[in-house]
DNA sequence: GTAGGGTTAG
């Protein structure tokens, strides 16, 4: 039996430390700790653990670790508390090291430890450790524990092993909000947006619980799909649920509407927010940029400073907005200021935007100069944007230099050869065109397959190049030929240089007509009433010929066409596009 | 006493 005095002191210290934990009062916590040392009071495991918790919660991890290391005896709770401290501050290596130390010390991890340690295996690079933990928890029978299982499935989802994540999810004896959200967001993060939506619909019909996190993930998936109907429906559901205000959810709505082509709705969400974070502003800026509205980007950027501090993404959004909106001088000004005042925020991406800007305005030598003198290593995408500019401005000299660099960096990318051969073709240098084509056939590999989709009546219709499986294939083929005749009569000339294969011209025309975005546009034209905007999405950048095709369709059939490619929106009306033919 | 899921960009 302990002395009454010791017991009283225990209670006093315990109460004091608990108060510090609740109030996150680090200074006071240190004082209590110091008092204990002066009084030569040696805390046993429980109070020692409380001290660790206090330091962890107050963000003083190194102090916490000091206490842990000096404890004469440690419990599973003391170890777990410390590991969790590391996990939550993304000190994953230390978290895993400590977990190993704990096991070497003979301590048996419990469900708390395992759920925690799995969060310290983030991404594909730590899949090896993650699998080791997995095998441990199979042995200890924790695989189907609710918390451990959802942590495990999230680990697999984040390491891009969505099938394994799904297997774990399907094995859980029950499902709760967190496990459901984790698997849905797993699909969304991997870009499997349709799967995310399907799973949500299934689980929702089975009565799953949802909260703001679930909706945040779901809305992200809908942004990827560009499904305005579903987006509006889910937004309405969110409003009906009367959830408390959550910035991240509102931010995802801003992004979703802008990616669905409804900037006004984005702005409405943005304006109605009780509180905005820098992410809210960034999402809105990106939205304007994606739609080519450079002036709105600049004006919003000015307003932003009154409310939040711009970050690296902000600058990227503004520069890319200026580039897409054609505001060359404004963009260069903003960049110059950033170099002087916020250079710590700048990285390759920002330089890429500026090089794009310079290229767009035809200042190709300057752009080349900036690449060579920027404080970062150049990337293929930067050289690629410059090569595109060389095509637009028909500059063979710089084009050759850039292409040489680019073909060394990524010889397997067919797109680069195509652009270079286009540059030569425009200059009438046919021998060189031929050389490049030959080189391309020898070196390139097949790229990511292009696909386009259109959503009609909440059904997603996906098209691949030279679609062979769509049920309406025959009708689409007939219609596309009809369109071809109509737009040719209006002056459309197929751009055969967009075809990568070495075949005769007639076959080239046929291949061009098989491009997925043309199929989707045609399908839209066939299945929507006159006057309705045709909204088509594509997973890659749109090719010059398809862009031209869409322009002519918008003119000849008097239809507005909204095309969202990988990077931005094209709104085509009366034969013109909001991108100004530069993308 | 200790635990799992979320937003812009890349």
Automatic annotation (TrEMBL):
Gene3D superfamilies: Tetratricopeptide repeat domain. GO terms for biological process: RNA modification. It holds the Pfam family PPR. Its main location: mitochondrion. GO terms for molecular function: RNA binding; zinc ion binding. GO terms for cellular component: mitochondrion. PROSITE patterns: PPR. Signal peptide: none annotated. Residues 491-583 form the DYW domain. PPR repeats lie at residues 75-109, 176-210, 277-307. It is found in: Mitochondrion. Keywords: Mitochondrion, Repeat, Transit peptide. The keyword Disulfide bond does not apply. It comes from the Eukaryota. Belongs to the PPR family. PCMP-H subfamily. This is DYW domain-containing protein. It comes from Oryza meridionalis.
């Amino acid at each position: 039996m302990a002395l009454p005095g010791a017991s009283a002191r225990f209670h006093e210290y315990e109460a004091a430390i608990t108060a510090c934990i609740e109030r996150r009062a680090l200074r006071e916590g240190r004082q209590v700790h110091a008092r204990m040392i002066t009084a030569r009071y040696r805390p046993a495991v429980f109070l020692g653990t409380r001290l660790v918790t206090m330091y962890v919660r107050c963000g003083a991890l190194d102090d916490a670790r000091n206490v842990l290391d000096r404890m004469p005896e440690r419990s599973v709770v003391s170890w777990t508390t410390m590991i969790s401290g590391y996990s939550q501050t993304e000190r994953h290596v230390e978290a895993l090291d400590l977990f190993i130390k704990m096991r070497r010390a003979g301590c048996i991890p419990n469900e708390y430890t395992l759920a925690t340690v799995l969060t310290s295996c983030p991404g594909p690079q730590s899949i090896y450790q993650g699998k080791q933990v997995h095998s441990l928890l199979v042995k200890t029978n924790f695989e189907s524990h609710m918390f451990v299982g959802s942590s495990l499935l999230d680990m697999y989802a984040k390491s891009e092993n969505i099938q394994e994540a799904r297997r774990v999810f399907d094995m859980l004896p029950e499902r709760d909000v967190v496990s459901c959200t984790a698997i849905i967001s797993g699909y969304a993060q991997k870009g499997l947006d349709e799967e995310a939506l399907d799973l949500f619909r299934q689980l929702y019909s089975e009565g799953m619980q949802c909260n703001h996190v679930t909706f945040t993930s779901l809305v992200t998936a809908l942004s990827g799909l560009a499904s305005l109907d579903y987006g509006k429906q889910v937004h309405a559901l969110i409003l009906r649920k009367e959830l408390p205000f959550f910035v991240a959810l509102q931010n995802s709505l801003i992004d979703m509407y802008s990616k669905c082509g409804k900037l006004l709705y984005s702005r409405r969400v943005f304006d109605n927010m009780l509180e905005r974070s820098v992410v809210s502003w960034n999402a809105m800026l990106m939205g304007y940029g994606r739609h080519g509205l450079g002036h709105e980007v600049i004006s919003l950027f000015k307003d932003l400073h009154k409310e939040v501090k711009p970050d690296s993404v902000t600058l990227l959004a503004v520069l890319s907005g200026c580039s897409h909106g054609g505001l060359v001088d404004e963009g260069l000004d903003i960049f110059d200021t950033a170099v002087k005042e916020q250079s710590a925020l700048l990285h390759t991406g920002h330089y890429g935007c500026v090089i794009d800007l310079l290229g767009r305005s035809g200042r190709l030598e300057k752009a080349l100069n900036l690449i060579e003198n920027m404080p970062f290593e150049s990337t293929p995408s930067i050289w690629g944007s410059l090569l595109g500019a060389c095509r637009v401005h028909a500059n063979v000299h710089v084009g050759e230099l850039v292409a040489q660099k680019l073909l060394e960096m990524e010889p397997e990318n067919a797109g680069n050869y195509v652009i270079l051969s286009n540059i030569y073709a425009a200059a009438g240098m046919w021998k060189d065109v031929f050389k490049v084509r030959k080189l391309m056939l020898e070196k390139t590999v097949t790229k990511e397959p292009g696909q386009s989709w259109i959503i009609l009546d909440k059904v997603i219709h996906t098209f691949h190049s030279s679609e062979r499986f769509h049920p309406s294939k025959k009708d689409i083929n007939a219609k596309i030929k009809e369109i071809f005749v109509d737009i040719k009569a209006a002056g459309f000339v197929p751009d055969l240089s967009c075809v990568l294969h070495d075949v005769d011209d007639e076959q080239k025309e046929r291949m061009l007509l098989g491009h997925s975005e043309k199929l989707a546009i045609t399908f839209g034209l066939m299945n929507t009433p006159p006057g309705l905007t045709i909204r088509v999405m594509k997973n890659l950048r749109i090719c010059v010929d398809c862009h031209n095709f869409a322009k002519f369709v918008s003119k000849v059939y008097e239809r507005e066409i909204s095309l969202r490619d990988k990077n931005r929106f094209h709104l085509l009306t009366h034969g013109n596009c909001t991108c100004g033919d530069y993308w």
